[in-house]
Design brief:
This protein has helices at 2-24, 39-54, 69-77, 88-96, 149-162, 176-184, 200-207, 219-228, 266-278, 280-286, 309-317; strands spanning 26-31, 59-64, 83-87, 110-125, 140-142, 170-172, 190-195, 212-214, 233-237, 249-260. The protein has eleven helices and ten strands. It has two domains: 24-115 and 257-331, D-Maltodextrin-Binding Protein, domain 2 (3-Layer(aba) Sandwich); 118-254, 3-Layer(aba) Sandwich (D-Maltodextrin-Binding Protein, domain 2). The radius of gyration is 22 Å and the shape is globular. The protein is α/β, with parallel strands linked by helices and 332 residues long.
Length: 332
């Protein structure tokens, strides 16, 4: 009887210990984008690297697919996620309560690091009759998931370069993988796939049986867009980036970044950045987009919102001067 009681007591202690251990784990969710874009695989890679070194300290990271920038900003605003990847223009608008976020500021946004330029890849089926921007009227175009950063970009680009609104096209609210499949199946004519290149959905399209091409941003088109949306900058996709792509393609891009909720501890943000820099060579091997990250200038392109205080500490120790506009309010 005593032996059974001892065994029972040990079992209770073991269960209690397991519960205590589980309770001690701090979960950090990184919200990303659709599976056919760049955010999701990069978020997964970062979560894996963070877990390799921080899980032993009771910090567990996980990457979660989402509708992209807009949903990620909302999830941080509502404290439903701790980290995310987001376009810097929309992050700045959300933090300051301007543009599409007029009167609705989101104070729960901090930058950790500038990542890569999100390039605007306007891919179309050659069988659609599209030869230039003026041919988009009346076409079925994938504009990104509802309320996504891609939807915002599609509206901005169509208005600036072609004088079109969504009333002038047939908008299809699709993620990148779905948009790729829809073009290949002939259900839509074109899609804006805004991500770091190479983008898996674009690779899929160029490698498929349906012949596709990409509308270039050059000359007056580029000038008109940047005049209306100055957060864009010229980018060139080199020939050979995609299958059967035999020439450079002039496009535009806007920087994206790793964003953090201000309630995430300085220690976690500092260690996460430390891991990114320590594991830089491995990251380059795991996804080509990391070659576009300017590790020497990690603040370039950050717009409208401040750094996380843990990031300020990390960069100051690396000898970087932090501009006044990037200091968070809690450090002023």
């Amino acid at each position: 009887m005593k032996k059974r009681l001892v065994v029972l007591g040990l079992s209770v202690l073991l269960v209690a210990g397991m519960a205590l251990s589980a309770g001690a784990v701090e979960f950090v969710t990184i919200v990303t984008g659709s599976t056919g874009g760049t955010y999701y695989p990069v978020g997964t890679i970062l979560a894996n690297h963070f877990n390799q070194k921080l899980l032993k300290d009771g910090i567990k990271f996980s990457a979660q697919s989402s509708g992209g920038t807009t949903e990620n900003l909302d999830m941080l605003k509502n404290s439903e996620a701790q980290m995310g990847i987001a376009m810097c223009n929309l992050t700045g608008f959300a933090y300051t309560g301007t543009n599409r976020y007029e009167g609705k500021p989101n104070p729960n946004l901090r930058y950790a690091i500038a990542l890569w330029p999100e390039v605007s890849q306007f891919v179309y089926a050659k069988s659609s009759g599209i030869e230039g921007w003026d041919d988009l009227k009346g076409k079925k175009i994938a504009v990104g998931p509802p309320a996504s950063g891609t939807e915002f970009s599609t509206r901005t680009i169509l208005r600036a370069v072609a004088g079109l609104t969504f009333d002038d096209i047939v908008p299809e609210y699709l993620g990148y993988s779905e948009a790729s499949q829809a073009i290949q199946n002939g259900r839509i004519d074109a899609a804006l796939l805004e991500a770091g290149y190479p983008t898996s959905a674009v690779t899929e399209l160029y490698a498929g049986r349906t012949e596709v091409d990409m509308l270039p941003f050059e000359g007056d088109v580029k000038d008109k867009l940047i005049a209306e949306a100055p957060w864009y900058a010229p980018v060139t996709i080199p020939a050979g980036t995609y299958p059967k792509q035999d020439k450079d393609i002039p496009v535009v891009g806007v920087m994206c970044s790793l964003i953090v909720h201000p309630e995430v501890s300085d220690d976690i943000v500092y260690k996460a950045l430390q891991i990114i820099y320590e594991d830089r060579e491995d990251l380059l091997k795991e996804h080509a987009v990391f070659y576009k990250v300017d590790f020497d200038n990690p603040l370039n392109g950050l717009y409208g919102a401040p750094l996380h205080s843990g990031a300020v500490k990390f960069y100051r120790e690396k000898g970087l001067e932090i501009p006044e506009n990037l200091l968070p309010p809690e450090m002023k």
